[in-house]
Write a structure and sequence with these properties.
About 45% of the residues lie in helices and about 15% in strands. It has 15 helices and 14 strands. Strand 9, helix 9 and strand 10 form a beta-alpha-beta unit. The chain is globular, with a radius of gyration of 21 Å.
């Protein structure tokens, strides 16, 4: 049986949807190789077509793919998360939100990376039995702890003192990511070094673009924005840091948290409700900047607290291991295959453009 992974996420660089897609596809190829053939953006309609992005050219294929197989949609965002990511006029936003939900409704199955969004999807009229929760995953071959010697070498390369306490933020430069809170925390902790890896993936329509640009022109000496960073270099970035600090106001399941966990870094986040079922045992949380600064100071000065926090983070890495998540994907696709077999529907290979292959 064939699975066709459809995605145009690579059109925009430096965002978590692209990383999540790449990790999921590689994992599925590994765990399903005995029973399934996995292709990417194939021209033929396969038994299972899995959409990782909601591009218009995909939308108009859905009916044909459903007629000749089953469709799966990955839910990487919802209207409320997009609304606070990019600034578009109200009328255009309403059209886009309608389109997004329409795309999801057309799927035979949906997979969300956070269980909190199951209810939100149901509220949009999508049957609960069509929705599954499978978390994101990050490869240990890509993100892993480096030796102390290697970490110091990286710090030297980035002109950072060996003894500096380095606070790292990672993600797109958007209002919802809490970038301004990150900058203000740095201003209150001049003895620490604050780094942010990530840029304006959506350019000037990124929400908060003007405010963040203005703040970046008046930075203290202890904060540095590294800009858009290739994912291949991010393991070095994590390893030269002491803690990941992600003060986002909205998230689904940030890939950057999983990446930091793989590297054994303590993780500090805002106490969002969506983190409760997925991360509460593995990360440190705060409600505002005062909490963040207090926790960062304790991490900096209390070695036992730091090691306990780092251990909790690594436990999160073990919980969201490739073995565990890979088993979930294997069971998910095998269930679809079993349902197709029970339905007994004949399958014929058809090209996306129409006609038999």
């Amino acid at each position: 049986m064939q699975i066709n992974m459809m995605s145009k996420a690579d059109i925009v660089k430096g965002h978590g949807v692209l990383s999540a897609h790449d990790e999921q596809v590689e994992l599925v190829k590994q765990v399903l190789k005995e029973k399934f053939t996995v292709c990417e953006n194939g021209k033929r309609i396969c038994e299972i077509t899995h959409y990782h992005s909601i591009n218009p050219e995909f939308y108009f294929q859905i009916a044909k793919c459903r007629k000749n197989g089953k469709t799966v949609g990955s839910v990487h965002f919802l209207p409320e998360t997009v609304e606070n990511s990019i600034g578009i006029p109200g009328f255009a936003r309403r059209i886009f939100n309608w389109y997004m939900i329409s795309f999801y409704r057309k799927m035979d199955y949906l997979v969300t990376v956070n269980p909190c969004f199951v209810d939100a999807l149901c509220h949009c009229g999508i049957p609960r039995n069509k929705i599954s929760y499978i978390p994101n995953v990050v490869s240990e071959e890509t993100f892993y702890p480096l030796s102390l010697e290697a970490r110091m070498h990286i710090r030297k390369e980035y002109r950072i003192r060996p003894d500096a306490f380095v606070v790292l933020g990672v993600g797109q430069l958007q209002e919802r990511k809490g970038v301004l809170d990150f900058i203000k925390a740095a201003e209150e902790m001049p003895e620490c070094m604050f780094l942010w890896a990530g840029g304006f993936s959506f350019g000037k329509i990124s929400k908060g673009y003007k405010q963040i640009q203005k703040a970046m022109k008046q930075l203290p000496d202890n904060i540095r924005f590294l800009g858009m960073t290739e994912r291949e270099k991010m393991n070095q970035i994590y390893n030269m840091a002491d803690v990941l600090f992600l003060p986002s106001y909205e998230e689904l399941f940030p890939m950057t948290i999983l990446e930091a966990m793989n590297c054994g870094l303590p993780v500090l986040v805002r106490n969002l409700d969506i983190y409760e079922p997925i991360l509460s045992d593995y990360v440190l949380q705060g409600k505002d900047r005062a909490d963040f600064v207090e926790t960062l100071n304790i991490l900096k000065t209390d070695r036992i607290f730091y090691e306990r926090s780092a251990h909790a983070s690594y436990e999160g890495h073990l919980f969201y291991s490739r073995e565990r998540v890979g088993k979930q994907w294997k069971e998910f696709y095998e269930k679809i295959a079993e349902e197709m077999h029970e339905e007994g529907a004949p399958f014929s290979e058809i090209s996306m453009e129409g006609g038999m292959v």
